[in-house]
Amino acid sequence: MPEGYLAISIFAVCAMALPIVLLVAAKLVRPSAPASTKMEPYECGIPPVSDARGRYTVRFYIIAILFVIFDVETIFLFPWAVRFKQLGWFGVAEVAVFLAILIVGYIWAYKKGALEWV
Q1: Cβ proximity of 92 and 85 under 8 Å
Q2: Where are the chain's structural domains?
Q3: What is the pTM (predicted TM-score) of this model?
Q4: Which of 25, 97, 109, 118 is the most buried (most CB within 10 A)?
Q5: Per-residue confidence (pLDDT) for residue 85, from 0 to 100
Q6: CA 33 to chain centre
Q7: At 15, is the pLDDT very low, low, confident or very high (cuts 50, 70, 90)?
């Protein structure tokens, strides 16, 4: 076996053995019979009233996605603000177009009713 593959082989064996060793060590250290309170859904002492797998409306996910989109879009303004003087009027025009597209998207989402909670 060439010398170059020896280090890779040792690393691969260690990478495969480490999770197994850690799982076995955790199995030996942890308690095998947990208390009944540990097996309850909540440790606060209050029994659950309803099923924990409640359904969310699709509107919740639409609002969340719109928030992420508009939030990430505004993060792109930070590099522009850092280089504002170097970019000059061309940079101002670029950001104006960027913000115009963002505002058009916001108005479109508002008119579609995506921002209403009802």
Answers
A1: no
A2: 3-43+54-112
A3: 0.44
A4: 109
A5: 85
A6: 35
A7: very high
